[in-house]
Amino acid sequence: MVTIPVEIQLLFAALLFLMGLIGLLVRRNVIFILMSIEIMFNSAGMVFVIAGSYWAQVDGQVMFIFMLTVTAAEVSVGLALILQMFHHFKTLDADKLSNLKDTN
Amino acid sequence: MKLVYLIVILLAGGLLSWVTGRWSRVLPRIIALISLTTDLILLLLIYKNQAGTGTGIWMIQYKTEWIPSFGISLYLAADGLSMLLLMITYILGLLSVLISWKEIRDATGFFHFNILWILSGITGVFLSLDLFLFYFFWELMLIPMYFLISIWGHENRIYASYKFFIYTQASGLLMLISIITLYFIQGSNSGTYTFDYTQLLGTAMSPTLAYILMLGFLAAFLVKLPVVPFHNWLPDAHAEAPTAGSVILAGLLLKTGAYGLIRFVLPLFPGASVSFAPVGMILGVVGILYGAKLAFAQTDLKRLIAYTSVSHMGFVILGVYAFNEIAFQGVIVQMIAHAVSTGALFILAGQLYERIHTRNILLMGGLWKQLPVMGSMWLIFALASLGLPGLGNFIAEFFILAGTFKSNILMSCLASAGLIGATAYSLRLIQKVLSGRENTEWKLKDLSVREKLVSASLVILILYLGLLPQKVLDTAKPVISNTLNSIEQVVSPGSGLIK
Amino acid sequence: MTILLALIPIMPLLGFLILACCGSRMSKQMIAFTGAVSVGISVLITLITGLAFLVTPPAGNVVVVNLWQWFSTGGLALSIVFRLDALSLVFIFVITFIGFLIHVYSIDFMAGDEGYARFFAYMNLFVGSMLILVLADNLLLLYLGWEGVGLCSYLLIGFWYREPVNGYAARKAFIITRIGDTAMIIGIFLLFVHFHTLDIQLLMQQASSEWGNGSPLATWAALLLLGGALGKSAQLPLQTWLPDAMAGPSPVSALIHAATMVTAGVYLIARTHVLFELAPAIQTAVAAIGALTLLLAGFSALAQHDLKRVLAYSTISQIGYMFLALGVGAWSAGIFHFMVHAFFKALLFLAGGAVIFALNEEHDIFKMGGLRKKLPVIFWTFLIGSSSLAALPLITAGFYSKDQILWFAWSAGNGNPWLWAAGLLGAFITSMYTFRLVFLVFFGDMVTMPEHHPGRLMLIPMIILAFFSLIAGFIELPESMGHVQWFSKLLDPVLPAVNTAHGRIPESFFQLVAGTISLSGIYLAYRFYLKQPYLTSSFNESRISKFLYKGWGFDRVYDLLFVNPLVWFAVRNKNDFIDLFTSALARAAFYGNYLLSITQNGRIRWYVMAFVIGIVFMLTIFINL
């Protein structure tokens, strides 16, 4: 099979991270922010897998499983917070959550 | 050890006042009086016993190690100049406690704690010869004064206390930088890192570096003096402070600036001082004239008196940079005479405020009728302010101007014009407060016995300075000779600057 | 004798202390007693010491008493030393004697005033300071007395403090004289720096040995001391304060602004005559200023309505004569005129004050008239005083003193025909305005009825002064009339004799001219103000009259050039523009806070963006390192 050079793989992961980051910065809806965070997490996990395949060890894929677990926990906490936010502020717009701003 | 007692008695007295303030309003005042009287007596004993017995110019010294690894020691020493200033410190301190008797009613314990700690800070400033210790006491003076102004002051007190604190703190930090740089230079030159003043004298460094370091020290002292571009904290702080605060500010804190100039700037940086002298004299003249002009225009009584302080302190910096004996004698007499006369004016302003609850001189007038004794006191101290011969300020201003005339005729003539300005503002003060039509709704009581005691002692002091200043001049002479020597060695050895 | 000398100034000062501390608790009689007796004791001692001095002159013709050392430092050592020589003897005689008479007068004059104790306290302080001034042996002690009399002048001009106008007049006087005093103190610095002493005798010796004739240093020193003299003696250009000083009570005007304080300048110049002789340019300036001032003030006096203002301008004018005399080198003539002037001017002020008192505070001479029948004693004493002022020939003291000055203005070494002409014109104007005053107040129809009649305590001093105004001249008669030279002989050890240069025209000619001028002035005053007053009514309304009334516009000019700009600048800058810098700093800090707080907008996306930027930044740095 065609071996993809590791730089391209890492580049792919970086691009994925970047897309997630841009999505985080650009989207206003908190659910989409959460989803972008997911993408960033996945790209980080991707880097672990790429590293594992580079060093021909299985630890990379093990880390990916760990990452899935963490992501799941984080998403549940995040969704709970989003529920509270919606309950309180009646909106899913992240920019509306600015009560801690400097009122000067 | 006695010198340490001077400071410790005040610190302990302060703490005791604070504690007893919780259950008595009078007890803190009494404790303050006792601590100050003890200190004054102790000081007079030291003066009597030690005069002429110390080594070199120091009458009495005390030194122990504090933080040896950094070269910081607890080094206190007193000479003629410190003695004179300490005497006036305790006298004015006593008077400020006496005048706050009826004026301060809330939190008297904390109030007297602040006063005593300010005074101990001042004592430390006048006594310490270790630069780190000096800086420590310098900062110690500031914080209680900040509290004094911001808690017991008048309407605009928060603004005034912030301004005072930030201004003096910032300039003190510049001085700290200079101190530390000096420390490092001396350390790298001689191998011993020390903050000790006597060992820092004569540190070898390039003239530019010396000039810059001197500017750092000057920053703190010029702000404290105050010298004209940096004087803005003074009117607000003086006007908004309670009477005791104003007296201590005007009478003592300003003198710490002058003391710093004479004790630290001139001996540590003689060459740089000589190059700075023309600038110093110009700043002095500008201060005298500008301060007089500002004083003339004020309608707030305490601001007016505050600006007269700016004007009088201009004489001090003018005299310091004239570099001859008679000018220095004038500077020292001016420090004492100004403390007495301006302190008295603030005391009178406070007593007047207690009666009529306003500082606006446009609302006053015709007060001679109801307050003849206070009126006479106002007159005497306004005349002292304008330099009437026979009172202490005249001796001071005459010496300074005569000495400056020796060095720089133009500056002396310009500064003499300040005498006319002084006449203008002093007479305007008297006119607006005492003469003119009466405000008929006020029914005022003249000075009480306590107030008369305070005023009378100040009158006696100022007359003594004006007619029999010789004792003061003799006490200050060794310091002056010493300072002039260090300047002389730099200018041209054996040129005989001392005349 | 030496202790007695020290008591002369100390007694009035003691009187001041007693009255200042306990005056409010003393009865009116006690106050009057203390005030007058302290000066009275000084008079007695003065007379005793004077007599002893004249009969058995002490060694070197001086008496010195050293009280205590004032200070000694940095090359200057001064003591409180009093020195009595012929010059100071004349002055202390005038000060104590006339002072005593005025104190007695004031016992009645100020009787209704609530500030009775305060008045006598200040008057005593004044007499004490003036005595210190003339007895001082060093310039700094002289300066102490100098400022002391300035202070008392301020306090007494503004004595009736309830009127703001009086306060302004007092301040004006103090500030203008302070300007002169500042020039004087700079002169003192100059002398100190060069000679390291301020002892007058030593200074004069060293100056004459070290400074040559016309040396620039001597010129500066003399000029600066002259500045001080000009201020105190109200000569050009510092003369504007004296007319306004008439706001004070009449005894004050008599003592301070006629007889004594304003002559302090004359004393100073006479005392430091060595310096002036070393600076001929300045000495000529003294004469020129004297001549100009006497004319200027004389003309102004012609246009005044207020009785006291006429007398004030007259004082300025007569002091101009004294300066003229000093300027041409006729030192003792100047002092002689001082003494005679003190007598008649004090008399005129006291009599004028009595008139004002009698007419219930009416000052305007056009509202007076015909008072000679109702107030005979005042009339006769006023007449005698005016005659002396106008230098009525032969019988009045004023004739001898003024004539002597006119003669020396022509004939002395520094003399000059122009100076003589100015003096002569001035004499003419003097007799004219003086008798204008006499005719308007005492002759003609009565406009205001006198309501109070002055008591004996007011009249007796006036009579005594009138007596002296007549006979005081006889101690110094010119050559053509007996050549009595008691006065100049007395002053010989102290003041140099005048050297007369011209000799062609005999002195008697000048006396004739002077006498004629004086009489014609009186006659013209009679014509214009009594016989045919309509002749002057157009003059009274004219612009020139108003200009002269305002003192030749000096006040306007000074206001425009100095007072208004300074006051405007002071008020405009009341809040101190430098404060703007510090508050600008504070505002900049607040602005920075405002700017930075924009980044703290509470939005999570912004914060994440900040993270990202930071990470990128750090990555760039660490990759480059």
Summarize the structure.
The complex is a heterotrimer of chains A (104), B (499) and C (625). In chain A, 74% of the residues lie in helices and 0% in strands. Chain A has 104 residues and is an all-alpha fold.
Main sheet specs of chain C: 2 strands, antiparallel
Shape of chain A, please? elongated
Sequence stretches where pLDDT stays below 50 over 5 or more residues of chain A: none
Main sheet overview of chain A:
none
- Largest binding interface between chains: B-C, 61 and 52 residues
**Beta-strand residue fraction of chain A:** under 5%
Termini separation of chain A (Å)?
A: 62 Å
Structural class of chain C: mainly alpha
β-strand number of chain A: 0
Can you list the strand order of the major beta sheet of chain C? 1-2
The mean pLDDT of chain A is 90
Beta content of chain C comes to: under 5%
Could you estimate the helical fraction of the residues of chain C in percent? Answer: over 70%
H/I helix tally of chain A = 3
Helical content band of chain A: over 70%
The overall average pLDDT of chain C, rounded, is 87
What are the secondary-structure elements of chain A, in order, as H or E?
HHH
* Class of secondary structure makeup of chain A: mainly alpha
